[in-house]
Amino acid sequence: MTTISEKPWPAATVTDVFRALTADGAPFEMETRIICGRPVRVYKQGFTDLRALFLASRRWGERDFLVFEGERLTYDEHFRAVAALARVLVARYGIARGDRIAIAMRNFPEWPIVFWAAVSIGAVATPLNAWGTGDDLAYGIVNAGCKLAFADAERLERLLPLRGELGGAELIAVRTPAGQRGDIPALADLIGPPSGYAALTDLSLPDVVIDPEDDATIFYTSGTTGRPKGALGTHRNAVTNILNVDFSAAFMALRRGDGWAGDNPAAPQKTVLLPAPFFHVTGCHSTLLIALAKGRKIVLMYKWNPERALELIEQERVTNTTGVPSMAWQLLESPDFARRDLSSIEGISYGGAAAAPELTLKVRQTFKRFFPRQGYGATETSAVTSNNCGEDYQARPDSVGLATPVCDVKVVRADGSTAATGEIGEIWISGPNVVKGYWNNPEATANGFADGWYRTGDVGRIDAEGFIYVLDRIKDMLIRGGENIYCVEVEAALFTHSAVLEAAVIGIPDRVLGEEVGAVVQLKPGMTATADELRAHAAGQLAAHKVPKRIEIRRDDFPRNASGKILKRQLRAELIADAAPA
Q1: For strand 449-450 and strand 271-274, is the pairing parallel, antiparallel, or unpaired?
Q2: CA dist., res. 540 & res. 472, Å (int)
Q3: Residues lower than pLDDT 50 in the chain
Q4: End-to-end alpha-carbon separation of the chain, Å?
Q5: Which residues are CB-neighbours of 69 under 8 A, at least 6 positions away?
Q6: d(CA 19, CA 295)
Q7: Is the CB of residue 149 less than 8 Å from the CB of residue 104?
Q8: For residue 433, what is the DSSP state?
Q9: Interacting residues of 485 by C-beta distance below 8 A, sequence separation 6+
Q10: Which of 251, 260, 217, 257 minimizes the C-alpha distance to 235?
């Protein structure tokens, strides 16, 4: 594909750029450390742990840190609130290094306060999917063995009926009316209301020594069967992502022939619009952590709405936005797009779901002053493993880019051997960003990790220059707008309908969301049910985003292999063909 560029490109080869950026004394210089008994390349520069990152954020002082629906929180106010909560966690609740603290809330300003208070004292922040049911939330709290769980009003309402089944975890309410929380203490009772954060005078943190390999986070991620798995991340895993993201900007500049001097702390503040949830590594590691490192302002949204997002971009002079590809599509196609002043935007990035090649071309044609950027990674890789940006992204819009310097990516054949260049197989990832494994789940850890490599379950290939292409997924899972959805969970809900004999849930392509939930259902002889009835039935048991958008009803048996397993790939092709216009 022809590249879209205003100057001759490339000015340097991939190899030359990597060599320049990772040379001795360069910003991305590396060294080898022994981690879990294995030699691992790590960055020599940058933060060693999350506590150090938080302490460094004091330098941003009176800059705005968070903006939420008219509320503003400065870096100084945030620091004071975090320090106050950290002391309460230790003195009142006896939280010690390694204890788990759950966070179950939407993107309120209190979310980062709880997160930073936890990790700054060596506790393990355990974000829970705010879309989950009460049972989902309770499972995460119990599975992680949390001592405390901070919940907003919606999540608290779901948890209260299960209060006696939380393994002894104590609840703390956030933004919850007193009449709803009963005897449950409120965060404001512990550190005061946001209006009083600036008056907090004790800026000291409890004295804790943190090692880069200490546990820091447990992010629950959906798999293909059973309950979500808790990816156990370390401090090094998390802070590595900061330089992994930085590398793409430096790489793009040198590839183009421009210089790169890094960030200038005295430069005008950057502002990022964050529509993605903090309980995803995109929102946490790739936005929250980077904001503290660079003094950026984060604009939060109560709920995703493209028209509201465009309004905020105009009002707050947003310079960057990140999320899943569907959000970028919706911004570009909003009826309000043309009437909003979007001149402040300097970059759009996305990841977490498949991005159609048309999206990068559309962004570039619309915003001629910058290129979009796509990242590839997973919860298990603490966000970014590879980046595709600049002219490289225009030249290869179907690629997820090059692995970052500290990451190794390989394609593996079914027999476990390494595939040749261009050969298709399963993508495996290794590096200091790969988590330890799955919390309290040795079987899943053994299946998902091997000698420091994370088995992604993605099918792909790598070309001669190192560009990675993700072609499909081995796992029986689909991703709708960045949200992982178990097929078996949706199938189980459909199976409970009295007329259903068999059900197969599959991902069907969607230009905006990447995938939508589709299902093929076989009815029992003599029984009847409509697609609308089945959707309504499923909606009574599932979160709204998991309910199938399209259900095809059949009387005949499904195609199966010799062992009797349903051939889902064939069903998917048939469902797509049936949905296509004549």
Answers
A1: unpaired
A2: 31
A3: 1-5, 224-225, 562-563, 582
A4: 30
A5: 300, 302
A6: 29
A7: yes
A8: T
A9: 222, 477, 478, 479, 517, 545, 546
A10: 217
Q: Which helix (H) or strand (E) element contains residue 457? A: strand 453-462
Phi then psi dihedrals of residue 454, to 5 deg: -95, 125
And the tokens for 280?
A: 């995803």
Tell me the C-alpha distance between 293 and 290, whole Å: 5
Q: What is the CA radius of gyration of the chain?
A: 24
What's the pLDDT at 562? 41
Q: What pLDDT is stored for residue 342 in this prediction?
A: 96
DSSP H helices in 161-228: 178-181, 187-191
**Residue 193: CB partners within 8 Å, gap ≥ 6?**
none
Q: Report strand pairing: 100-104 vs 148-152.
A: parallel
User: What's residue 561's pLDDT?
Assistant: 53
Element of type H or E holding 102: strand 100-104
- HEC states along 458-493? EEEEECCCCCEEEEEECCCEEEECCEEEEHHHHHHH
| CA-based nearest residue to 265, from 56, 43, 28 | 56
Q: Which residue has the tokens 């949390």?
A: 146
Alpha-carbon span 554 to 278, nearest angstrom: 41
Q: What is the DSSP pairing of strand 477-480 with strand 483-486?
A: antiparallel
Measured in degrees and rounded to the nearest 5, phi and psi for residue 98 equal 95, -15
For residue 50, give both structure tokens: 């999350």
Among the listed residues 455, 387, 403, the one whose alpha carbon sits nearest the alpha carbon of residue 426 = 455
Q: Are 261 and 286 in contact (CB under 8 A)?
A: no
| Locus of tokens 């069907």 | 508
Cβ-in-10-Å burial (0-12, 13-18, 19+) of 574 comes to middle
Residues 4 and 364: beta-carbon distance below 8 Å? yes
What is the model's pLDDT at position 563? Answer: 42
The conformation of residue 559, written as its DSSP 8-state character, comes to: P
For residue 164, the one-letter residue type is G
Q: What confidence score (pLDDT) does residue 3 get?
A: 35
Task: For residue 2, give every residue at least 6 positions away whose Cβ sits within 8 Å of its Cβ, in sequence order, or none.
Answer: 395
User: What does pTM read for this prediction?
Assistant: 0.86
CA angle 328, 329, 333 (to 5 degrees): 120
Q: How far apart are CA 131 and CA 544, in angstroms?
A: 9
- Please count the other Cβ atoms lying within 10 Å of the Cβ belonging to residue 94: 9
Q: By three-state DSSP, how is residue 72 classified?
A: strand
pLDDT at position 20 is 96
Q: Alpha-carbon distance 501 to 541, whole Å? A: 18
pLDDT for the residue numbered 4: 39
Domains of the chain: 14-47+233-473 (3.40.50.12780), 74-198 (3.40.50.980), 480-579 (3.30.300.30)
CA–chain centroid gap for 369, Å, is 27
CA-CA-CA-CA dihedral for 394, 397, 400, 405, to nearest 10: -20
- Give Cα 37 to chain centroid, integer Å: 28
H-assigned helices in 69-221: 75-91, 110-120, 134-144, 153-159, 178-181, 187-191
Q: 506 phi and psi, to 5 degrees?
A: -140, 155
